[in-house]
Specification:
Structural class: mainly alpha
Distance between the termini: 65 Å
Number of helices: 4
Strand content: under 5%
Low-confidence stretches: none
Radius of gyration: 18 Å
Largest sheet: 2 strands, antiparallel
Oligomer: single chain
Length: about 110
Amino acid sequence: MLLTGFSTLIWLLYMAMLVLAVVALVMAATAREDAYRAADKQKKSFWLVILGVAVAVNLFVPMLFLQLAGLVASIVFLVDVRPALKAVSGGGWRGGSSSDGPYGPYNGGR
């Protein structure tokens, strides 16, 4: 009974790592190529290869060390690269303006 619960926990952790890698890969694929250069990050193709390998490792290779390396790559992309890309691209899903600050649009002190 204890072993079944532990294997369920491990399976959930593997699925969480897979979902995180897939989300990071989709976000990397949808960003523009010039945004990577403007944000002074690695090329888009670099991130697509790294995150694609992370997804493939999580799907097909049951080696925890490689899966943890993919998890680190996914976290680095989501925490470091994606915010830089959003800042350069001018927002995200809801759009944005060059006058938008962290708390909304700047209206000139009115």
